[in-house]
Specification:
EC 4.2.3.5 (chains A, B, C, D), five-stranded antiparallel beta sheet, alpha+beta, amino-acid biosynthesis (chains A, B, C, D), homotetramer
Chain lengths: 376, 376, 376, 376
């Protein structure tokens, strides 16, 4: 449904053509400084129309905090947030209405809810993600103060153009150690920090735009400075919660953590991350990090990193032979201009969902640590 | 934590060296025939020691239903199930005790819970999965009666040896349409239905066993005859729940549905699944199935299929330079014989978790359909 | 926290002096007619300032649906609702600020959240209940269409003035069978349908107002035409969920169902409700209804009725010797005019919470009935 | 359903005639000493057959911990517990089978689940409460170590015989301050610490036993040394969770906290609990405690006390004119010997449920306090 998280919990509402979209964030730590200025930057990064790589609709997406703060501090009570929809009128592409868009949610929403929203896929609209990003910004602020947690997502693949993301390659581990949002944004709207491929990625997207087509991509995300002990086996392992979060993002088709799919080819003797004693932190750490910062479902203090593939956008202006709702063969060509690649815009959404998972995991684990300190 | 599911819900308990492992399954439909005979087959498929491909420990793993049935019928009340641990004594490998096993859960469990179970990783033991498989068998029985839902998982990769699992290849789609558990088991303990690679997979495992090493693999799973409308956007999309379930299985490192990671290279014009009217079912169906049976987070009636990578097992008898809990450098060589590849044994666990996700999704959706029938 | 319900689920936000209060209602049946006109009437009944019996602040409390409907029909997606706060400025009674109001939530909110909202008790404000009432109105609309479920609450006691609510008295059972909201409102703002005591109740309230004091009361609620089978033993018995709901309302101090506290004096031979075969409904029914419509935690189809005591309002203008936050003895006299009895205004809130419990219970039970129809 | 609690969470299973009853307790603090000896005492207090006041069936009810502890310490993993049913055969009263017992759960269970357990009411069996008591004992052990939390329940009414439980009476507050389980048990099986009425209560029960009838009663419970800040407004106020817990106990019909129903007659000027500065604790405390230790849904550090009415037992051997399942008039007289008053046996169950609510509330609040310490 539309609630995510247990102790740090967001509930969202809103479609593309209703009055507003928004969310309620419950469980926010009380006494934390919080104003719209903490939230708007990620919302603006999520916003379409930032460049010719994205759809030209310019929604201003100004967030307004409704409740839960006073004099710039959180009260510990639920934080209501609203972003008005500027486009509240029904859509304008009437002949498309007879067709469920292939690989979009039009058909399945109708099957599920028995009613067709004028926008087709109802909550499958990208505007649904505004509430996630707003809530994630609050989670991030808490995590920052907790242990300077840094969450940075970036584009590692567009179509066939990819930067190296092999976890066994020290160069990639170096990127994971040093990448920042500033570096990601410095790459421009493509959000790929590897200058050797970023240009090609832009061309790839432009090529498909020219063909009225679309193309997929991969977002990789790293989380640094994570406390050990996060994650709740056996069903709520930290990677399971991250996977849940990432696969809930529109257009995502997978998830891999650490060495992921490629790692299955590596024997245990090479894949295992041996321990060493780290003089700086006075703790055990691992020499390599094929595990991706999680072992047995629990964070081990190393960088958490994972990748999420996003499929090519379903709505394209190219003609597609398909069938109408009534079952008649026909050809659909979506009117209007459509985003040929949603992948770069997914970056702040991936960051937001990661922040929500972590903030919740921290609250759960800290209650356990407290309890243990009492009984042991 | 140790509860999974909302309306069809399992809660599990048990480590490797305690008295028993088991689960409570709540929300089972009342009036359904159910005895241990419905559950034991999948438990036996999960059991180690079935062949030289697996660890030789022969645990009999007989399930005993404690409650919730009478005269072979479910009462609608919680079903308690127990499987006794035959090996209840503490483990016998004492010198290993000074070392957290690299990439195992020993270190993180200690960090999280502040206490070290004699078995090291506590609930990270493979025996934890017994409760999942037992519960999954009940879910499956319900799904079978619902719409003849068929869930079949199989091994598609061991190390570098892989069978084709390209969704755009009609041959692979044919396998997804026709694979059965009987065919999977006919392949022997390797559980790969492609005879052209199954032998190589066995050799791959044997090679690593010979080297006191381990190797990873991939399990692919197909679910056929799924009703449309399952999945609860925006956070509990069906693929999100499946990903959550799969990443909660020990040693899993990822999840991809439909075209997954490879699909990002395919432009929308080819990736989109066009609709056609199916005379047999009198419904819209899709000509291709790159979506993997789910669109917008909701099942569309086509086959659901996904793949899950399992890393090489962490416990190997080969010597590993690492550090002790105390931070001293040393060399660990695990005593005893260890399973060089957990992948084939993951097959019934993947099936069980898929069944649990689907049974829960069905109950949720059917309550909505009822409600809609009242108000519309 | 601020979410209530499992399948039919409301999440609320908002304090007394923030921008708006509101809620998100998830799980609303799709395809149901719904506009603000369905929601406003109960909000208006909840509104203060309806008469001299209540506080004179006149908040207009106009609800605005933000999402989840189109062309007057629900989409099955979350329904966001907002009611603007007219009084968004900080409060004006500055010398009171040094005192935690006795028996109010000022002290405990500070203990819990470590921060003091300018309004003192944060979410303990009566405005918090607006979201409940708005959500409850939607639940009620569904229940009405389900089986003409009727939920009517009314005042049965103010201070020492009480109408008979003895369940063994056929006269009271007759009232439960016939009371309507129209009759309740016809009694005026006191909302007591028994004309023989309603006038005295008004005088009781006026007396305490004159003394700058406050007084408590009891609200009784009946729910008619309830389907059998609702409630989820063993922990979520229907009466347990109702009790949870009622004790979550500000100022409530208890709950009793059916014969309640008085019933413990009645021996089983008299208290038990014998069955008879009802020719009209072709079902077993009970001759008496001391159980209050629920047996073993499950609805039996008879009227559900229960009572909820509301304590005298904590904020009074009379001088109260107490202590400041700093621990200094002093005398507090709340400025402004305060509601001497919140009981009559609790009527629509009790109805709303009852509707939310029932709608959720219906959805849960209907999914079970479906499942059973498949397997039996 | 059969799970209770969020962070400290119990899931139970078992009917009266199945193999065993038991539970899984998740979220238990790791590193806590725990053996069966911590759990058995409360189970033995719950056990029937302790005297002629109760049913003579002597079930030994020996609990066996299955998992989650090692060498007498908790591991932080789920604790499975089992109590074997000695009476596993189907029941012996065959002619009763045609009748749903009036005011028992036989009829409603059949309506809900569509299947009739041989024991009639399935999970409405008193044996269902064994899992609650076992889990509650663990919660209590944690609370004891937290802040020496003391939970003592006792019988304050049987039929018309009652001890004073007026919260405005200092004598009653003195009892709440000083009552212990030892004093309660010293009163014998009646569990009423007021010697001036305990004998009459025993006679009352004996009278109804002689008449093959049954009688109800009230259990009052006090919780001392509660930390401030527990409870999660607005829906999970501490009293709401306690009410939920208490109304989930078989045969309970209500709940009142602090001044409860009687308190509505007391004006605010007398009902409000004024603050004073307590030199001992260096904190604000209240001079009176009409609130019952909770204000605004949050514990204020004073004693929490509440009362729960239990109806007369439904199963009586006296003849009852009623109807068969088939709708035929007839007379039912239950065979066997039946407990004429379940109230005294409810004492440890009330204590257990109170402990479960508190342990969960503590874990929630402590995670918030941690978060606040980070951000403020």
């Amino acid at each position: 449904m539309s609630t995510f998280g247990q102790l740090f919990r967001v509930t969202t509402y809103g479609e593309s053509h209703c009055k507003s979209v928004g969310c309620i964030v419950d469980g926010v730590p009380p006494g934390m400084s919080l104003t719209e200025d903490d939230i708007q930057p990620q919302l603006s990064r999520r916003r379409p129309g930032q460049s010719k790589l994205s759809t030209p609709r310019n929604e201003k997406d100004k967030v307004e905090i409704q409740s839960g703060t006073e004099f710039g501090k959180t009260l510990g009570t639920p934080i209501g947030m609203i972003v008005k929809n500027e486009d509240q009128r029904p859509h304008d592409y009437s002949d498309m209405d007879n067709y469920p868009r292939p690989s979009h949610a039009d058909f399945t929403y109708l099957e599920k809810y028995g009613i067709k929203a004028s926008s087709g896929g109802g909550r499958s609209s990208a505007r649904e993600t505004i509430g996630r990003v707003a809530a994630g910004a609050i989670a991030e602020k808490f995590l920052k103060q907790l242990s300077n947690v840094e969450i940075v997502a970036f584009v590692t693949q567009i179509g066939t153009i990819k930067m190296d993301r092999n976890p066994l390659d020290p160069k990639f581990q170096h990127i994971l150690n040093t990448i920042t949002r500033e570096k990601v944004d410095a790459a421009g709207p493509i959000r790929c920090p590897d200058a050797s491929v970023a240009g090609d990625m832009v061309h790839e997207i432009e090529k498909y735009r020219g063909e009225k087509d679309s193309i997929g991509g991969v977002v990789t995300c790293v989380i640094r400075n994570v406390p050990t002990g996060l994650g709740e086996p056996c069903f709520d392992k930290l990677e399971a919660l991250l996977a849940h979060a990432m696969l809930s993002i529109p257009a995502s088709k997978g998830f891999e953590i650490g060495s992921g799919f490629a790692g299955v080819e590596v024997p245990g003797s090479k894949h295992n991350d041996p321990f060493f004693y780290d003089e700086d932190s006075k703790k055990l750490r691992t020499k390599t990090n094929n595990s991706g910062g999680i072992q047995g479902g629990i964070s081990n203090g190393e960088n958490i990193y994972f990748s999420v593939p996003f499929k090519s956008a379903a709505t394209i202006s190219q003609e597609q032979p398909t069938a109408t709702y009534d079952g008649k063969d026909g050809v659909l060509a979506a009117k209007g201009r459509h985003d040929p690649s949603v992948t770069p815009r997914a970056v702040p959404i991936v960051e937001a969902m990661a922040a929500l998972v972590l903030a919740d995991a921290v609250l759960l684990q800290k209650s356990r640590e407290f309890a243990q300190s009492i009984v042991a």
